[in-house]
């Protein structure tokens, strides 16, 4: 098992982490806004516990306009300042401005590739140095750890779930890009 899988099965994990592990971790988001929200969670989490982000998700969605890419891309500096000061947010100005920049990058990628999701999932499993260059070119506040967690958590890179984890089959059935690029045939998740 991965450390996250082990922890979520240990009985020591919070319910909110088990829920995230079982329903989202390693599963490719369907829309650009969902994918963008996952990148934002990673940016906002930097230096904090993952529990904080999971507990604040409703508030984060409220202050960040449900992570709607076009809306966030158009926010003014004044609107970013209001969001940054909101107690439901992770109040960190550099992260807030990075989120707006990243929304603009997502919008640009969507214009060029049809969607940011098509761009990301079309790249395949690639060398970490290539990912670092791509992220540095397009995004802000996305160092190596943020990249790795985002790519693994959205199914781009292998490692979200170990094969013996009950959620591994769900990631395959959802079409995790790492499995598609590796030629692994999707299997049906257990129904229990």
Low-confidence stretches are none
Largest sheet: none
Query: Quick check: average pLDDT?
Result: 90
Distance between the termini: 20 Å
Domain count: the total is 2
CATH third-tier fold name of the largest domain = Endonuclease III, domain 1
Name the helicity range: 55-70%
Summarize the helices and strands and which ones pair or pack.
Layout lengths: L2 H7 L5 H9 L8 H14 L4 H6 L1 H7 L5 H5 L3 H9 L7 H21 L2 H7 L5 H11 L5 H10 L14 H6 L3 H6 L10
Task: Quickly list its features.
192 residues, mainly alpha, Endonuclease III, domain 1, single chain, 13 helices, 2 domains
Q: How would you explain this protein's 3D organization?
A:
This protein is mainly α and 192 residues long. It has helices at residues 3-9, 15-23, 32-45, 50-55, 57-63, 69-73, 77-85, 93-113, 116-122, 128-138, 144-153, 168-173, 177-182. Helix 3 (32-45) runs antiparallel to helix 8, helix 7 (77-85) packs across helix 8 and helix 8 (93-113) crosses helix 9 (116-122). The protein is globular, with a radius of gyration of 17 Å.
Gist of the model:
This protein has 192 residues and is an all-alpha fold. It has 13 helices and no strands. The longest helix is centred in the middle third of the chain and has 21 residues, at 93-113.
């Amino acid at each position: 098992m991965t450390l996250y899988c082990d922890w979520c099965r240990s009985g020591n994990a919070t319910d909110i982490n088990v829920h995230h592990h079982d329903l989202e971790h390693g599963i490719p988001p369907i829309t650009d806004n969902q994918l963008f929200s996952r990148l934002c969670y990673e940016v906002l989490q930097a230096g904090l516990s993952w529990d904080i982000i999971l507990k604040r998700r409703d508030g984060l969605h409220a202050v960040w306009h449900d992570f709607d890419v076009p809306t966030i891309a158009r926010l003014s500096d004044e609107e970013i300042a209001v969001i940054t000061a909101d107690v439901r947010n992770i109040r960190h100005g550099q992260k807030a401005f990075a989120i707006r920049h990243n929304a603009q990058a997502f919008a640009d990628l969507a214009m060029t590739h049809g969607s940011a999701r098509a761009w990301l999932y079309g790249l395949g499993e690639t060398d970490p140095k290539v990912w670092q260059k791509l992220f540095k070119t397009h995004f802000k506040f996305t160092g190596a750890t943020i990249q790795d967690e985002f790519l693994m958590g959205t199914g781009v890179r292998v490692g979200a779930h170990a094969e013996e984890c009950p959620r591994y089959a769900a990631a395959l059935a959802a079409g995790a890009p790492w499995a598609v690029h590796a030629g692994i045939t999707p299997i049906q998740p257990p129904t229990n």
